[in-house]
Amino acid sequence: MRRCADVLFGQRARLRWLHLILGGALFMPYWLVGTLVTGPLVDAPGLFSGSLAVQLGAYAVGLPLAAVTALFPAARPLSVAAARALCGVPADRFADGPARGREAKARAAGWFTLHVGAGALVAGATLALPPFAVAVAALPFSPGLRRSELGRFWGLDRVGWVWAALPAGLLMLLALAAAAAAAGALLAKLAPVLLGPSPADRLAAAERRAAEAESRNRLARELHDSVGHALSAVTLQAGAARRVLEAGGADLEFVREALTAIEETTRRTVGELDRVLGLLRRGEPGGADGAGPGLDALEALVRGAGPHVALTVTGAPARVPEALSREAYRIVQEGLTNAARHAGGAPVTVRVGVHDEEVEITMENPLSGRPPVTRPGGGHGLRGVAERARLLGGTAGAGPVDGVWRLAVRIPR
C-alpha cells in the first residue's frame, strides 16, 4: 500500500505531474489558434465555447502546429531543461545544445508534441475533475446536491444509492492520479530516446572533450616549462653565487648579477603561475590560447638563465603570429631548462631566425660527456619540444653534431 501511494503521490510522481501541467500550459497558445480555426466551422457562439466539437477540433489543430514549431533547433534545449529537472531521468542521458540534423530535429519535435499533447489532457483533467469528484463525494451529505442535476444524472436522488457517490468521487481522484503517474512514467521512458544524443551529438561531445583535454594539456605543459625552467635557472645562479662566496672571491658584481637574475626569474614565473592557475580556477581551459610570453620576452628569459647563455635573434619577431610566438618562446625555455640540467653550466648559444616561410630555433652547448635524457610522460624535456613542434606542423631534432649538443627546431609560419 505504501509503495502504491509513493508511485501515485511520491515526490517523483508529483514532479512528473508538474511537468505534464507545464506541457498543458505550453499547449495553450496552440489551442487558442485551434479554436479560431474550428470555431467558425462548427458555428460556435464564441471563442471559449464549451462545445465538445470545438475543444476536440482545437486540440487536433494545435498538435501539428506544436510539432512544426518544435523543429527549430532551440526547442530541444528548453525541453531538455524541463525534462532534466522534472522527469527523474539521469542528466547524462540527454543531449546538450540545439538539435542539429534532420533526425535530431524530428526526435525533438516528437518529444515536444507528445509532451504538450499529453500535458494538455492531464492539465485539463487536473483542472476539471477534482471539483467534480469532490461534488460527487459530497452528495451523501448534501440534500441540495442530491436534488440537483448532478444527483439526478447519477441516479443518486434515490436514498438507496446515495452512499455510492462517496467511493465514486474518491475513485475519480485516484484515477486522475494514476493517469498522471502513467503519463509521467511514459514520458520519462521516452525522454532518453527522443531527447538523447544522436551520433552527431556524440561526435561533437567527443570533439569538445578532446579540445578541453588538449587545452588542459597545454596548460600543464606551460606550467611545467615555466616552473621547471625557473627552478633550473635559479638553482644554477644560486650555485654559482655560492661557489664565488665560498671561494672568498671579491667578485661581488657577479654575485649581484646572479641575485638579480634570480629575482627577475622568480617574479616572471610567479606571474605566469598566477595566470595559469587563474585559468584553471575559472574553469577556462580555452584560455590557454590567451596572452602569454612570446619572442619579445626572450631577452628577459635568457638574462634570467645566466651570463653563460648568448642569444642571437634575426628577422622580425614582432611579425610572427601570437600563437606561434608563444610556442617558440616555450621551446626556447624548455631547451634552456634541458641545457641547464645536463650541460653543467657550460656556455649555451641560442639562435632564433625569423624567415619568410618559417621560424628556426637552434641551441648549442658543449657535450658534457653524457647526452641529455628524456623522462617518461609527454611534455618533459626534449620530448616536450618535439611535441610542440609537431603540433605546429614543424620538426625538431637533437643530438651531437661537431662536438656540441644541438637542438634544432623548424616551425612553418
From TrEMBL:
Positions of the Histidine kinase/HSP90-like ATPase domain = 326-396
Membrane spanning stretches: 20-42, 54-75, 108-141, 161-188
| Domain Signal transduction histidine kinase subgroup 3 dimerisation and phosphoacceptor: residue ranges | 216-283
CDD domains from the UniProt entry: HATPase_UhpB-NarQ-NarX-like
**EC number(s) given by UniProt:** 2.7.13.3
Cite a single GO MF annotation: kinase activity
Its keywords, alphabetically, are: ATP-binding, Kinase, Membrane, Nucleotide-binding, Phosphoprotein, Transferase, Transmembrane, Transmembrane helix, Two-component regulatory system
Do you know which Pfam families this protein is assigned to?
HATPase_c (PF02518), HisKA_3 (PF07730)
Q: What is this protein called?
A: histidine kinase
Its source organism is Streptomyces gulbargensis
Q: What is the lineage of its organism?
A: Bacteria, Bacillati, Actinomycetota, Actinomycetes, Kitasatosporales
